[in-house]
Design brief:
Layout: E1 8-9, E2 13-15, E3 18-24, E4 32-38, E5 44-50, E6 53-58, E7 61-67, E8 96-100, E9 103-107, E10 110-113, H1 117-124, H2 140-145, E11 155-156, H3 163-169, E12 176-183, E13 186-192, H4 196-202, E14 210-211, H5 213-221, H6 240-261, H7 263-266, E15 272-279, E16 282-288, E17 298-304, E18 310-317, H8 320-334, H9 339-345, H10 350-359, H11 368-380
Parallel strand pairs: 5-8
Antiparallel strand pairs: 1-3, 2-3, 3-12, 4-7, 5-6, 7-10, 9-10, 11-14, 12-13, 13-18, 15-16, 16-17, 17-18
Length: 381
C-alpha cells in the first residue's frame, strides 16, 4: 500500500501519547458502503479458512460491505437499539463463535469480512505448509504438518492506554473518511472508509481493533507527545488574501508532516498483494510487507476501485519479533527451505541460522538431534 490518492490529511489532534490525524475525502465514494456487524457472543471465534485448517482468535466484530452495480448511492445500516433491562444469560464457559471463511458473501451485493483478521491470517499463513522438500534436517512433523499450529499475540484497543479517551474527545471533521493513529509518534495503523457517514458509524470500532506489542509498549512508556501547531507569520499578513495564503501553506505543512510520519507505510511498496474477493468494480485484497528490518512493516487489507483508488484500508504494524519471523520464513521459502543456502542468503553460519530458528520459535521443526546438539553447545558457551 503506497498511496492514499483522493484523501487529504487534516490537522492532527493530540491526547497524551496519542496523535490522531484525520484523513479527509473531498469526494466520497457513494456506491460502496461499510457498516459493522457485532457478534452476539463476544468470545473466541473459530474461522474455517481451508479444509482441516482453522483460524482461532478473539473476533468481536465484522464489517459488511454493500455495493451497487450501477454506481448509484448506497446507504449504510444504522445502529440497533435494545431495552436496557434485557441481558444475555450468564455463560459458565468461554463462548465460541464459528464462522465460515474470512470473507463470505451474505447476499447478492453484500460481503461480510473480518477486519484486520483477514490481513493477519495472511501473515500467519506464510509458508504454513512447511518445507516443500524433504531435507534431512527437518523432522517428520515439520514435513507432515508444517507450522501448524502457529500463533501470534496482539492487544485490543481497549488495552492501549489513552486510546479510548482520545477517540472519545476526537473531533470528527465533516469530510472525514479515515484516520491515522500514532502512539508516541509511531504509526500504529491507518483506517479508511468510503464515506463520512461510514466513518462516524465505525469510529468506535477502533477500540475493537488489534494493536501490536510495540504500540502497547510505546503507549505505556510515553504519556505525552508534542502538539505541533502551525505558526502563521503575522508580519506577512496585510490582507485577507495574505491570510488565506498562510492558511493554505499550513495545510500543505500538515500534509507534508503526515507523509513523513507515515513514510514507513506509504513510502514503501508492499511485498505481496493477494486478491480476496471481487465486488463489482471493487476488489478486496490483503497485503504483506517486504519484511525489511530497517523500516516499519505493516500488514493490511484494502478495497480499491477499478482505477486503484483506495475505498477502504486497515493496517496493523508488526513488532520487531514478528518482522524477524516473517523475514526468516520469506528467506527460507526463497531458498526452498535448504539450511545451507538460507544461511548463505542471511550471511550467517549454520549454527547462526539454527539459533535464529530457535529464537523465532521454529527450532522444534528441526530434527531432535540437531536442535538438541545446538542447544547443548549454546549452554556450554
Amino acid at each position: 500500500m503506497t498511496s492514499l490518492a483522493g484523501l487529504v490529511a487534516g490537522p492532527a489532534q493530540v491526547w497524551g501519547g496519542v496523535r490522531l490525524v484525520p484523513l479527509l475525502r473531498p469526494e466520497p465514494i457513494v456506491d460502496l458502503r461499510l457498516h459493522p456487524k457485532l457478534f452476539a457472543t463476544a468470545g473466541l471465534s473459530v474461522v474455517s479458512v481451508a479444509p482441516r485448517t482453522a483460524y482461532v482468535a478473539y473476533v468481536p466484530h465484522a464489517f459488511v460491505a454493500a455495493w451497487t452495480g450501477d454506481g448509484s448511492p448506497a446507504a449504510a445500516y444504522g445502529t440497533q437499539l435494545r431495552p436496557a433491562d434485557v441481558a444475555d444469560p450468564p455463560l459458565s464457559c468461554c463462548p465460541l463463535q464459528f464462522t465460515r471463511r474470512m470473507a463470505r458473501r451474505e447476499d447478492k451485493q453484500r460481503l461480510r469480512f473480518l477486519p484486520l483478521h483477514l490481513a493477519f491470517e495472511g501473515y500467519l499463513a506464510m509458508q504454513f505448509g512447511g518445507p516443500p522438500t524433504v531435507w534431512a534436517e527437518w523432522n517428520q512433523r515439520a514435513i507432515r504438518e508444517g507450522l501448524s499450529p502457529r500463533s501470534e499475540a496482539a492487544y485490543a484497543g481497549t488495552d492501549i492506554p489513552g486510546l479510548d479517551d482520545a477517540l472519545r474527545i476526537f473531533e470528527i471533521h465533516p469530510d472525514q473518511c479515515g484516520v491515522a493513529v500514532y502512539l508516541a509518534d509511531a504509526l500504529a495503523g491507518i483506517f479508511v472508509v468510503p464515506h463520512p457517514d461510514d466513518y462516524r458509524l465505525l469510529h468506535p470500532t477502533l477500540l475493537l481493533d488489534m494493536y501490536g506489542e510495540l504500540i502497547h509498549q510505546y503507549a505505556l512508556f510515553y504519556d505525552e507527545v508534542p502538539d505541533f501547531r502551525p505558526a502563521l507569520d503575522a508580519a506577512a499578513v496585510a490582507t485577507v488574501a495574505d491570510l488565506r495564503d498562510q492558511v493554505t501553506q499550513a495545510h500543505r505543512d500538515w500534509r507534508s508532516f503526515h507523509s513523513v510520519m507515515a513514510g514507513g507505510l506509504l513510502g514503501v511498496p508492499p511485498g505481496t498483494v493477494e486478491t480476496v474477493y471481487r465486488m463489482g468494480r471493487f476488489t478486496l485484497s490483503r497485503f504483506l510487507p517486504t519484511f525489511r528490518v530497517d523500516t516499519d512493516n505493516h500488514v493490511g487489507e484494502t478495497i480499491t476501485d477499478e482505477d486503484g483508488q483506495v475505498a477502504y484500508l486497515k493496517t496493523f504494524r508488526l513488532s520487531a519479533a514478528q518482522v524477524r519471523r516473517g523475514h526468516l520464513l520469506a528467506t527460507l521459502a526463497a531458498n526452498d527451505w535448504h539450511l545451507d543456502a538460507t544461511a548463505t542468503a542471511l550471511t550467517t553460519t549454520g549454527d547462526g541460522l539454527i539459533g535464529r530458528l530457535d529464537r523465532a520459535g521454529f527450532g522444534d521443526l528441526l530434527r531432535a538431534d540437531i536442535i538438541d546438539a545446538f542447544r547443548n553447545r549454546s549452554r556450554r558457551r
